[in-house]
Design goal:
Blueprint lengths: L1 H41 L6 H26 L7 H17 L4 H25 L4 H20 L4 E2 L5 H7 L1 E2 L2 E2 H19 L1 H11 L1 H6 L4 H27 L1 E2 L7 H11 L11 H20 L5 H28 L1
Antiparallel strand pairs: 1-4, 2-3
Helix pairs in contact: 1-12, 1-13, 2-7, 2-8, 2-10, 2-11, 2-12, 3-4, 3-5, 3-10, 4-5, 4-10, 6-10, 7-8, 8-10, 11-12, 11-13
């Protein structure tokens, strides 16, 4: 009897410990399941293979950026410029390829652009001590304005014959290439975040920066690196969007940062740093993507999508600050 009580107690303690650590990931997983069940009951084509692949394809750019945004937010920072970087990257790709530049060089130039923008954000935030919210808000305007000036507000058509076009239109074993790229980046991001010292530094930077610094870690370099990585991710997302649409435009990526940040916070990453989960972010992106798709199949006005995203972000922040943190403390 004593043995059984101990077993029950141990199992109960393990269950509480697991929920205390992963409660938000479990919650967003349950929310995704509810979304799938509700919309599957309202639209026959919702769970069809083609529709699911379409959702994965359309949300791949957001997934790529959200994985790296998880790193940034876990350090206690935020990047509001990713939507503008996405727009400028697609526009720059169109300008370079239209000018006869080799597609490979154009692709590398776009990724370099993202790295430079991310480096500027990281330098101001971690070497000059300016809050990342202010830095990236300023960069949002600068980069969007640059994109508008470079394109004069017009869309630039991009030929799809080169290998770069495959990124937007191609399939690998029947799965859109964009989705395959996003899945690979998500897996790599999860491994780096959970299994490497760099991932531990990212979490430590957001939870106890001073202790990490005293342990000999170059905290400025860690923060600088995550901003540069999210800049590259936003540039890659710009390439994928541009090649899917067949054109680059300064108007692409409007409110993109809102969708990305909503997915990250919805997935359980603490908006104030110190705690993050790549798996939760992936579930957050999928949940928002399937909600948007389900609303479209239900013929709901697309204007309501932004309202829903904003409301979900507010609810996620409230749950993060009040409910889940209380549960964690209680355990």
């Amino acid at each position: 009897m004593i043995t059984n009580d101990r077993v029950v107690t141990t199992r109960s303690a393990r269950t509480h410990a697991f929920l205390g650590t992963h409660i938000q990931t479990v919650a967003i997983g349950a929310m995704l399941l509810v979304v799938l069940v509700v919309f599957a009951a309202t639209a026959d084509t919702f769970l069809s293979v083609e529709n699911v692949l379409s959702v994965l394809r359309q949300n791949s750019p957001a997934l790529i950026v959200a994985v790296l945004m998880t790193f940034v937010i876990t350090t206690g920072g935020i990047d509001l410029s990713v939507g503008s970087v996405l727009a400028l990257s697609g526009a720059l790709l169109g300008i370079l390829i239209s000018a006869g530049i080799d597609p490979t060089l154009a692709f590398l130039a776009v990724l370099l652009l993202g790295a430079v923008v991310g480096a500027v954000n990281g330098w101001f935030s971690h070497y000059q001590g300016i809050p990342s919210f202010i830095v990236t808000l300023a960069m949002l305007g600068i980069i969007r304005g640059t994109a508008l000036r470079a394109t004069d507000g017009y869309s630039i058509s991009i030929p799809k014959e080169s290998w770069v076009g495959f990124l937007g239109q191609g399939r690998i074993a029947g799965v859109p290439a964009q989705a395959v790229i996003a899945i690979v980046i998500a897996v790599v991001g999860w491994v780096v975040f959970t299994k490497t010292p760099f991932g531990q530094y990212v979490t430590g930077l957001g939870s106890n920066r001073e202790s990490l610094r005293r342990a000999g870690v170059n905290v400025r370099l860690v923060g600088f690196t995550v901003f540069m990585l999210v800049g590259v991710a936003a540039a890659l997302a710009g390439v994928l969007v541009a090649m899917r649409l067949g054109s680059g435009s300064a108007n692409q990526g409007v409110n993109f940062e809102l969708a990305v940040i909503t997915a990250v916070v919805l997935g359980g990453t603490n908006l104030f740093g110190g705690r993050g989960t790549v798996l939760g972010t992936v579930l957050g992106v999928l949940t928002l993507g399937f909600i948007e798709n389900g609303l479209q199949l239900a013929h709901v006005s697309p204007f309501y999508v932004q309202i829903v995203q904003g409301a979900i972000l507010l609810a996620a922040i409230l749950a993060n600050a009040k409910l889940f943190s209380r549960f964690t403390v209680a355990r």
